[in-house]
Amino acid sequence: MEKIRDIMTTDVETCSLLDNVYEVAVKMKELNVGAIPVVDNGKLVGMVTDRDIVIRCIAEKYPPSSKVEDIMSHQLITVTPDASTREAAQLMARNQIRRLPVVEGDKLAGIVALGDFAVRELTDDQAKRALSEISQQQDQQPH
């Protein structure tokens, strides 16, 4: 069975607690990503997503100069590099998430995105199933 370490991205761009929301949004645009892990002294302490910026910053009328710490997601779902791809896909589907930080202890080791599953033949069905479950659950939420 394939492990997360086999498909995860290890060269992950991060931000710090001192960065402001505007800086992170610019970084997301430049990197064409929708989530950036927040790291403090190498330790994963949060995650900022494009959705966090919209819901917790703009919609709440926080200024773009607000600290990342004020809007980031603190309760993270993570996985270890030795977890199976099946476990990770199930975790993503169950928690309706498309990106999963990979940690060793409390240190960020990488990130795995739903798209990482899709490019691997062995896990293609797992990715389709996870995406289908995530999409179905999000479609059922009130708009």
3D architecture notes:
- The chain is α+β, with helices and mostly antiparallel strands.
- It has one domain: CBS-domain (Roll).
- It is 39% helix and 18% strand.
- It contains six helices and four strands; from the N terminus they run H-E-E-H-H-H-E-E-H-H.
- The strands form two sheets. Strands 1-2 form a two-stranded antiparallel ribbon. The chain has a two-stranded antiparallel sheet with strand order 3-4.
- A hairpin with a 2-residue loop joins strand 1 and strand 2 (43-49).
- Helix 4 runs parallel beside helix 6.
- The model has no long low-confidence stretch (mean pLDDT 87).
Shape: globular
Number of helices: 6
Query: How would a textbook summarize the main sheet?
Result: 2 strands, antiparallel
Mean pLDDT score: 87
Question: Features of this protein?
Answer:
CBS-domain; two-stranded antiparallel sheet; 4 strands; CBS domain; CBS_dom; CBS_dom_sf; Diverse_CBS-Domain; Inosine-5'-monophosphate dehydrogenase related protein
Short characterization:
This protein is an alpha+beta fold and 143 residues long.
Task: Provide the fold topology.
Layout: H1 21-31, E1 35-40, E2 43-49, H2 50-58, H3 68-71, H4 85-95, E3 99-104, E4 107-113, H5 114-118, H6 124-139
Antiparallel strand pairs: 1-2, 3-4
Helix pairs in contact: 4-6
